[in-house]
Every structure is written in C-alpha cells, then in structure tokens.
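User: structure tokens for Ubiquinol-cytochrome C reductase hinge domain-containing protein, please.
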Amino acid sequence: MRVACEQSAKCTGYKHHLDACTARVEAGSNENCVEEFFHLMHCVDDCAAPKVFATLK
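Assistant: Done. Predicted tokens:
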C-alpha cells in the first residue's frame, strides 16, 4: 500500500525531490535528505491512513 501511495500522482513530486537529493549525495554533496524523506513519508501516510482505517472498521 505504501508503494502504491508513493507512486501516486499526489506523492510523485516528493519522490522526485528525494531521488534528486539522493543523487546529489551519491555524487559527493555534504547534505542529507532527511527533510525530503520526511515530506515523502508524510504524503505516503496521508494517502495510506484512510485505506488502512477503512479496513479496520
């Protein structure tokens, strides 16, 4: 479910930013991608939570 949400139209922008940051880090940048990761995970959680709670009822 998380993978499907990560690939959804709502979250693809966040995934793109994380991928770009990861590429910069792998190329030698001294930054970290924590902020980009948290933005993506927040979007994924917002997408997945209603689906999870709907199945629990």
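User: Anything notable?

Assistant: The chain has one domain: 2-56.
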